[in-house]
Amino acid sequence: MAGKIGLNVTQICLPRECTEDEIIEEVLKLNEDPRVHGVYLHLPPASLTSRVLNTLRPEKDVDGVSDLNVGRLVRGDMNQGFIPPLANAVMELLARHGEQRKFVITLYVSEDHGMEMSGVGPLTAALRMQNVVQSSSRWAQGQQYRPWTLRSLKLQPLSPVPSDIEISRAQTPKPVDQLAQEIGLLQEETEAYGRTKAKVRLSLLDRLREQPDGKYVLVAGITPTPLGEGKSTVVIGLVQALSAHLKLNSFACLRQPSQGPTFGVKGQRGQISTHISMLEISMLINESFNLHLTGDIHAITAANNLVAAAIDARMLHEATQKDKALYSRLVPSVNGVRRFSPIQISRLRRLGISEIDPSALTPQEVSSFVRLDLDPAKVTWQRVVDTNDRFLRKITVGQASTEKGHVRETQFDIAVASEIMAILALADGLGDMKTRLGRMVVGSSRSGQPVTAEDLGVSGALAVLMKDAIKPTLMQTLEGSPVFVHAGPFANIAHGNSSVLADKLALKLVGEDGFVVTEAGFGADIGMEKFFNIKCRASGLRPNVVVLVATVRALKMHGGGPNVSAGSPLPREYIDESHHSLLQSLQLFPWFPLWLPSPWLLHRTDTQAEIDLVCQMAKESGASDAVPCHHWARGGRGSVELAQAVKQAGSQPSHFQFLYSQETPIVEKIRMIAQKVYGADDIELSPEAQAKIDYYNQQGYGKLPICMAKTHLSLSHLPEKKGAPTGFTLPIRDIRASIGAGFIYPLVGTMSTMPGLPTRPCFYDIDLDPVTEEITGLF
Amino acid sequence: MAGKIGLNVTQICLPRECTEDEIIEEVLKLNEDPRVHGVYLHLPPASLTSRVLNTLRPEKDVDGVSDLNVGRLVRGDMNQGFIPPLANAVMELLARHGEQRKFVITLYVSEDHGMEMSGVGPLTAALRMQNVVQSSSRWAQGQQYRPWTLRSLKLQPLSPVPSDIEISRAQTPKPVDQLAQEIGLLQEETEAYGRTKAKVRLSLLDRLREQPDGKYVLVAGITPTPLGEGKSTVVIGLVQALSAHLKLNSFACLRQPSQGPTFGVKGQRGQISTHISMLEISMLINESFNLHLTGDIHAITAANNLVAAAIDARMLHEATQKDKALYSRLVPSVNGVRRFSPIQISRLRRLGISEIDPSALTPQEVSSFVRLDLDPAKVTWQRVVDTNDRFLRKITVGQASTEKGHVRETQFDIAVASEIMAILALADGLGDMKTRLGRMVVGSSRSGQPVTAEDLGVSGALAVLMKDAIKPTLMQTLEGSPVFVHAGPFANIAHGNSSVLADKLALKLVGEDGFVVTEAGFGADIGMEKFFNIKCRASGLRPNVVVLVATVRALKMHGGGPNVSAGSPLPREYIDESHHSLLQSLQLFPWFPLWLPSPWLLHRTDTQAEIDLVCQMAKESGASDAVPCHHWARGGRGSVELAQAVKQAGSQPSHFQFLYSQETPIVEKIRMIAQKVYGADDIELSPEAQAKIDYYNQQGYGKLPICMAKTHLSLSHLPEKKGAPTGFTLPIRDIRASIGAGFIYPLVGTMSTMPGLPTRPCFYDIDLDPVTEEITGLF
């Protein structure tokens, strides 16, 4: 019988009474038959002996040793005619051998087939088998890439431009299961969260692993004003133009906004961090939008704080108990048996102890096992909340009498600053995330050894807490284009980019001719540099196009315009055309010729003269194109010119290369970034920074990439230096490391990781109508 | 045309050119026609003059003044033949007049019906109108109560009893949308969260408001051992027996477990709080169970901590700014206009300022408006985390230089101890929750005035953060019976019961002959007493049956058995039958004759002799029945005897009455609880407690119910006093108030609101297989 997926599937039915030797003889024949490319052993468990399994050539074995289990499933489900395991095996064979027609043999013994098969003659059994193969083939076909059938939503552009929430209320989003179907997701690959959000399972990557990726587009920005320059809106506008107007499959990948700033200062986000704000998310359908989204940041908070609680509790218990008492509690006798847990065995291995019988450890081994010996002064792990709570910037904990005087100074960061957020954004699967969570360094021992989350025994629990957060959240733009919202790490102490997994899923889904548009936080000196050298290094992906967002406002500021700050009126230099001489005095940015062909665009129309001037300057400095954007007022239609420029740039070859190799020494990596990206003359290391570098080299962290923690308001370390300053030396005050996330972060200046609330926070205007459930004042 | 819902609907079509007078004449005729029970004015807006509207008798007006709006909708949707507003109006009429056949007249003018109707002849228009009425009737029918079609899942009872997670893995849950359909939920009433959880919208209460409630069953327990006695498993077993075996509609309402203890000590929950644990939730289908459930506790954490951040930031801003500066920041000029926000106007009202022009306030009014003047020493609001983090029991905040020396001692509680959790559990709608959130008292001013969340301007934001948490989460038991998991307040500083809304939704869904089984935390002296006097008072619901759970283990302990503690082996007195003399020395519990007919049951079979003895004692002391339960080993089938007893008890009249009236003075209320429920001789108030009572009386809080914060391990205040102690005086150390939740809580002893982690927390055993995503070690 011929399947529809380029396969010929045949079965060989052996008699009931056949012996092991007869089966083996048959297998040996199949091993030698050049027409047979795969054998699926559909045998009763008793016949699946290790001799039989070992006889079949591994390259012909379509399902390996899991057959035992599969045998059972096939038997149970035969009447239903739907056998994923067999179909999977067939898919596996196709993947291994390419797409020519293949022969698969199902070796089949008619004996002992349980309830369903007992009393069934060979003919019936053969017919059933045929059904199984046919439906497997249908099923396998269903697993293949599905072309999109995206239905765009019409936007009614209004003039004057209404507030974001009014725009999004005027639209009715498609149900998310419909959206999922339109973009070729299988039903079992999504998990709805309400009506317009769904998490997408990572099994998609496996199903479409043979599918070529789409084009990968990065949206970065020039050094911004403190108001931010709207990169996220460009991402959305571009995707809407590509999908709704150019009819190309396309996907936006955005970061999840932090809750904290939502209730803080309007337009403040530029100052305090780097994640996108509710304002930008409002460009998505937000009728259903709730502040918790699908709970990923809450999961990070829970995981982060479990580590923190474990650290302090462990220090207390070590300080108040002798080795023996600690050991008997850590490895208790359960029903008379003492046993190490798998997490504890990992720790034993790191300590070089191969013994796994708890009673056989020497007192010295017991001591090194039970004592993490964390130095309270060298704990680097902080607690987090997703609230702008300035009073938690520096606190003393442990002051209750139950903590017996073990007080300690520490701090809370905002949740998105957690290393776990950086890990979520960089992990490329559940296994990778779990490994990274386990190796997070939370501090060091009194003898200077790093102490990890796994040493605390908490790594499994962290993986459990994060198991749903790792799935990207599918939403849609106002014009019905798909969006992944996933992860949102800080762009100074972390890398400030959305997740690797969202990008990877999207690249598979859009297909070879499609586009995935992702965004890097802060200015290109920070977000784009980290996108290239940290995120792309981790993911193995390479960008095809970079879009650099500039506004006339920001360009004027770099040309010498006055300061801009959130909450104050915009100085007239930015409104009045007569000041466009500011643009002419602009110096060009040093990072520009470094990498790829890049369209350079601007948005928020000022005057035609200004726009023409900026476009001309951009092209002269090497951009492959420069176009104005009007998505703010006109949605996707306002970005069609940009979409065409991106499509054009995407068809050109990209010559991507890393700025530095992993093997380059830490100091050299920092220097290369400072000189080639920031335009510094050199760097200057403090003694602390030098000592840390020595320590990291000694610990084997020297090959990690560098994640600069620098102000985003200047290419230099001085926020007031605008344009492209030269003649400065970049001071490296100190250096830290996020070993789980996998980077080292030099501190250039002081980074605030906890924003505060102003005298009149936004929440004064936020309200909920209890009858209509309408939210007011969020934007 | 006759609708199918007991209505005759007729329309009168007036000519295009009819005048206002002609319409009024027609309305007057309808007013007088005794066959006409309702009139729906389907008129163009221009004809809906106030004269016309005032002419129609209010009792005949099926849709009141909202017709203007409805008129528009009807026109727009006519071609779709689906008109909820008209159908709603019809339903309204039915509800108002009972169920006999009614005449409804649609008074209809053919003029000015917009695009859809222009150029349409009277016949077409009439036909369309007929369609509208017919589909409205179908729609209205769809809105009515739907009988259940619940499909139970077969349980394969295993012996020996496997671990909970193994049981639940062996089952395949029904998709939650199928479950929702089986229990008569409309598609638009659920919001799926993954495949086996869904939030249920509160609009259900409105749709089924005419539907009689089912029977309301409370499961409470005797004073437990520190291990807990498994009330939640009784709830689940009972519901499974009722629905899967007795084929009665039934619903379980459970509390959401806190994450903290999940990673702490197995069996510790009894010690540290009162919420159910993962162990109990594991009795539900938990293949899909994730620790975050649908994020309600995270929402509470976010809301709680926003209040905390607002408090400290406000104190800092008031301390560092003069009145004028504060005022100009709190009421800024936006485009030259200064305006109070609605939240600020509420505060002005509370201050007795009627002026709403910001420029017209006197300096004194400005000062009282801008200065909450919170006394740092009298801030009662705490931050929360959902982690067992003992080092946060007492901390100092504000030590960073940016906070300018405004340090303050404070603490974190575990998230479920937040007043917001208590509010979630008591609120009966979005509006009620918002009101309660606004009136939460966070501390008092230097002059002794209470300061509320609304004074801080944060109440709208809190409602926004909590808008999804208010919807109960629908899940299912292992046998496919429906369960609501919703809210889980502390049972000492709060009332320890699941949510009013979950109970109300469930009571509507099960229908008149169905059963809703809900659970009260801790022993009956605490959970049941608060269920009656706090929860039932707030909800207006009255229980029909109370099930009191007892175990031989706990009874023996009260009869003089040795101490039981989590993590230690059980003393042989509890295993060995020869000690059942302990049962005979048992004293009966004083609360027993207080209230309703109650089956008394026991579970975890010990010996037949013990069981017989306990059942006999229970009946002698007034229980309407007493039966053993075997749900632990046999699922619903093991609780059939209990289900029959509950069904029998539910058919008897209930004589419910509150223990005290709201008007009773605070001291008297406390004394009544102490004497009648705990068996105390009297109470003894500390001077602090007396001062607080005076203060609360002065603030008008005297009518609030009482929520005792007492140990759950004894009826008295001394955990070691077992059985039914007498001859003691209950000391009231201090008194606090949760004004938002709406109760006063006297403190009897010290209540821990933050559990800790032991030397070897459970998390050592918790792990996630990254390939299968299977969780191990949670139970």
TrEMBL record, chains A, B:
GO MF terms held by the record: ATP binding; formate-tetrahydrofolate ligase activity; methenyltetrahydrofolate cyclohydrolase activity; methylenetetrahydrofolate dehydrogenase (NADP+) activity
Coiled-coil intervals, chain numbering: none
Xref: InterPro entries: Aminoacid_DH-like_N_sf, Formate_THF_ligase, Formate_THF_ligase_CS, P-loop_NTPase, THF_DH/CycHdrlase, THF_DH/CycHdrlase_cat_dom
GO biological process terms, semicolon-separated: carboxylic acid biosynthetic process; tetrahydrofolate interconversion
Assembly and interaction partners: Homodimer.
Pathway: One-carbon metabolism; tetrahydrofolate interconversion
EC number: 6.3.4.3
Alphabetized UniProt keyword annotations: ATP-binding, Ligase, Nucleotide-binding, One-carbon metabolism
GO cellular component, one term: cytosol
Lineage of the species this protein comes from: Eukaryota, Metazoa, Chordata, Craniata, Vertebrata
Family the UniProt entry places it in: In the N-terminal section; belongs to the tetrahydrofolate dehydrogenase/cyclohydrolase family. In the C-terminal section; belongs to the formate--tetrahydrofolate ligase family.
Short name of any one Pfam family annotated for the protein: THF_DHG_CYH
Protein name: formate--tetrahydrofolate ligase
Domain of life of the organism encoding this protein: Eukaryota
